[in-house]
């Protein structure tokens, strides 16, 4: 075998190895996304006011609803694309609005002035797609 044939063989091996690694990475990523979407289907958004449940909805629902907490208080909760947030509130500080979107079981948004707790429950816990 002459040196150029040997070099071509090594180059082809490298290209084959790179293609196999790329294919494995794509399959691994797609598998993680599929598992994540299946796990998200049983997650629930639960809203509690002063310890009493006032809203229970699937995280897969599209929802934009007011949750009244006092005669003069209101929080508007949005559920969209598997996430939940407080869209707006008339409490001082707006900490619940500033919390942004949450999407994982165990995460919470709390509005102390209106005594609200918005929690994601169910799913497979705090394990991400890569750890599965």
Description:
The chain has 132 residues and is α+β, with helices and mostly antiparallel strands. It contains 2 helices and 7 strands.
Number of DSSP-assigned strands: 7
Separation of the first and last Cα atoms? 48 Å
Strand order of the largest sheet: 2-1-7-6
User: How much β-strand is present in the residues?
Assistant: 25-35%
- Sheet bearing the most strands, described? 4 strands, antiparallel
* Structure annotation, total helices: 2
Question: Average pLDDT value?
Answer: 79
The run of helices and strands is HEEEEEHEE
Low-confidence stretches: 36-40
The percent range for helix content is 25-40%
Radius of gyration equals 24 Å
Notable characteristics:
about 130 residues, alpha+beta, three-stranded antiparallel sheet, 2 helices
Write a short abstract of this structure.
The chain has 132 residues and is an alpha+beta fold.
How are the SSEs ordered, and which strands pair?
Blueprint: H1 3-40, E1 44-49, E2 52-58, E3 63-70, E4 73-80, E5 83-89, H2 95-98, E6 108-111, E7 116-121
